[in-house]
Specification:
It is built from 13 helices and 13 strands. By secondary structure, the chain is α/β, with parallel strands linked by helices.
């Protein structure tokens, strides 16, 4: 049995293999509501054999959306269309997960294909998409040309923490089995964690413990509203790749604090804090973030997920086998090939006669293979 296709358990949830579909924002929601696009987008990964399928970054407040097209879970009326998706994922044998988010100073942004810049009068005139004010730990804009966010008051902070808890409760009602908090890539929780974006001098800023306080309180609030038998994960940027930014050693300390607050898994990404000084030390290559997952897993004694520029089945199997991470997450590779898990299983000798495929597909593929073999083709 290849390690990549062994079962894995977190709390009361069993994953049939170690492959996760990373949250991928589609920017197709209307007022935060999921629709048929999201069902089909996520459903194809279920049919492709992934064990854990995450819905994209889902805002816990209306003003916490990154773009007007973001999913949301700030209102009970948004539960039903997400429940339809979670139910399909569950019925077809995968585990439905959802990533809860707040964009902080990255809020009120255009969709990527409209420029990934702040919403302006053109968006209001052409698409009826109006900008809204953003807030952040400190009054520092995301990048040059971006508006300066309002520095969050203690009341603001407590309100967002409560919003994460309320969204977690709605996620449970919708039928999701895993929550991941988006604490990476320059979103609000990451903004609190990073000394580049958090320059507060109160209990929410300063040393690593204080900067991690917001993330820890979010975890505790989710746990108060999330069943004990269901896992809670955090996606962290393990390194800001910048001078005076977060380091992997900081991330180990943060992971330990989150574990004590009821977090079960750390999804180890990196970068994205923003600003005019882009990361200069980042070398992008196959598996370049895997060492972060290995370090956090070893030094914080918590399960981890490896993500980012991994696509080789044998390499993924090896990193699971040697204990660098407990799961892997793929995104753009799955957009290119939604059946990557099934193809990887074949490459690793685990999918003879297409037995891992849904029977509706596997039966036809097996029949095709027999005919091709009989004819001496391919």
């Amino acid at each position: 049995m290849p390690s990549l296709f062994s079962a894995f358990e977190l709390r009361g949830v069993t994953f049939k293999n170690r492959v996760s579909v990373s949250p991928m924002s589609q920017y197709r929601a209307q007022d935060g509501f999921a629709n048929d696009w999201h069902l089909v987008h996520l459903g194809r990964f279920v049919m492709g054999g992934a064990a854990l399928v995450y819905a994209e970054a889902t805002a816990v407040t209306r003003d916490g959306r990154r773009t007007p097209g973001d999913l949301g879970l700030w209102d009970d009326s948004q539960i039903a269309p997400l429940a339809r998706i979670a139910d399909f994922i569950t019925r077809e044998g995968s585990v439905p997960g959802i990533q809860l988010s707040h964009a902080g100073r990255k809020a009120s942004e255009r969709r990527p294909w409209h420029g990934e810049t702040p919403l302006d009068d053109e968006d209001a005139a052409v698409r009826s998409e109006h900008a809204w004010p953003a807030m952040a730990p400190s009054a520092l804009p995301y990048a040059e040309g971006w508006p300066t966010p309002r520095e969050m008051s203690d009341d603001d902070i407590q309100a967002v923490i409560s919003a994460f808890g309320a969204a977690a409760k709605r996620a449970k009602t919708a039928g999701f089995k895993v929550i991941e908090v988006y604490a990476a890539h320059g979103f609000l929780v990451h903004q609190f964690l990073s000394p580049i974006t958090n320059q507060r001098q109160d209990k929410w800023g300063g040393n690593t413990e204080n900067r991690a306080r917001f993330a820890v309180e979010v975890a505790r609030e989710i746990r108060r509203n999330w069943p004990e038998d269901l896992p809670l994960a955090f996606r962290l940027s393990a390194s800001d790749w910048m001078d005076n930014g977060l380091t992997p050693e900081d991330t180990v300390d943060i992971a330990i604090a989150l574990k004590s607050a009821g977090v079960d898994l750390i999804d180890c990404s990196s970068g994205g804090i923003g600003g005019k000084d882009r990361p200069q030390r980042m070398t992008i290559e196959h598996g370049f973030q895997v060492p972060f997952a290995a370090q956090v897993r070893s030094e914080a004694n918590i399960p981890t997920m490896a993500v980012g520029f991994i696509w080789d089945a044998a390499a993924c199997d090896t990193l699971i086998d040697r204990g660098d991470a407990d799961m892997i997450a793929l995104a753009r590779e799955l957009l290119d090939d939604p059946n990557w898990p099934l193809h990887a299983a074949s490459q690793l000798g685990r999918n003879a006669d297409h037995t891992l495929w849904p029977v509706e597909s596997g039966w036809w593929l097996m029949k095709r293979d027999r005919l091709l073999s009989k004819l001496g083709l391919r």
